[in-house]
Amino acid sequence: MSSGRGPRPEYGFESFMERARLVVDNTIEVLLDNCQAPDGLKKAMRYAVFSGGKRLRPAMVLAAAEQFGSDDDAARFAAAAVEFVHTYSLIHDDLPAMDNDDLRRGKPTVHRAFDEATAILAGDGLLTLAFEVLAGDLPALVGSKKAATAVGFLASAAGPAGMVGGQFTDVRAAASKGRLSRDDTLKIHRSKTGELFAASLKIGALLGEASEDDLKCLKEFGYSFGLAFQLTDDLLDFDRELELGCGAAVSFAVSHSKEETVALATQYSERCRALVEPYGDKALFLRDLSDFVLSRSH
Length: 298
Hints:
Elements: H1 13-34, H2 39-49, H3 56-67, H4 72-93, E1 103-104, E2 107-108, H5 110-113, H6 116-137, H7 139-142, H8 144-158, H9 163-176, H10 182-206, H11 212-244, H12 252-255, H13 258-276, H14 284-295
Antiparallel strand pairs: 1-2
Helix pairs in contact: 1-3, 1-4, 2-6, 3-4, 3-10, 4-6, 4-10, 8-10, 9-10, 10-11, 11-13, 11-14, 13-14
């Protein structure tokens, strides 16, 4: 995760997250500085991507890359690309035609801070910049084959079979005001949330020396982690949704019960831990991530 191949700092979950955030933020700064875009558009893109996120998905890219011996530069470029896609999805999710949110992380959403057209284009800009980074910067570092595979992983996670498809189903379910089944709710959660987590791990591992079995394991971890993550999100939103009387159609805690949601999130967290147990100390971050998902407060 450093700029060279010197000794790694002693591991700690919080310290790894902070180091990952600094690496990714510095990389994003350079990429946005070099981005050829109108000033107003670049300002909106920067506003969105530096709005206080945890950088969890890029941290997963970096952790998997480190676990499987990736080049540091390749990992940080890939991590930045993943964060661009994540941020694009948040901009579009907040739009009036989607969730119609005025605030994100305590700040005005992009369409409120700027305007709706700028928000749409800022999201489009970040999405396409992500693939420009993967296709333009990775081939010289890891070869064209791995770079193309990384592009495929991210496109699949973000596209109609992943986040876009999940968001479509989410919007339609909310509009119908119907109560989804357990399986349908979890399918939306996996598409909207789990796919990008899985892609983050697979891309990081791919840049190193991961085997096909490793990639399959990390994909399953990403799916399970994504479900645990979204279920804990539902729990965090539970009281607010009941207070406002606006429980979302795809909130598992509202559609089912708080107790069932806790139990299911715990089950997926334990599944994550079991998946990375064979890797021992090489997967300390992923092991701790399995516990973090149940204890987080935001």
